[in-house]
Sequence to fold (135 residues):
Amino acid sequence: MDNNCIFCKIISGEFPSHKVYEDDDILAFLDITPVNPGHTLVVPKQHYCDLLNLPEDLACKIVSVIKKITPAILAGVGTDNFNLGLNNGKKAGQAVDHFHWHIMPRFEDDGYELWHGREYKAGEAEEVLEKIILK
Fold:
């Protein structure tokens, strides 16, 4: 528990939330600034700052919970489409220093776009691959 963490305060009940799901290890609640209605955050109850610090068994359990609750979220808001988002670190857009997934229902013409990619320059993919190959 991190006393300065807003998610820890939600988990402890100090701050209110609209709970979608809860068990001994995980809490899912509606985002207070949703991309679309039904936008849900899924967090471990223990404080871990990001995915790389999260124990593997808990990471697997969180994904299992996401698979369990997403159909109900989508049915509740009337769509079959969603984005599953994970911002890991401040430079990647992580606003709260407590690991969390975003389940974001999507609707036709909701005005949101995915990020814009670019093609690799000649030889760039090979250079990058050489640097990241697991050994």
Q: What stands out?
A: The radius of gyration is 17 Å. The domain at 6-132 is CATH 3.30.428.10 (HIT family, subunit A). Strands lie at 19-22, 26-30, 40-44, 81-85, 101-106.
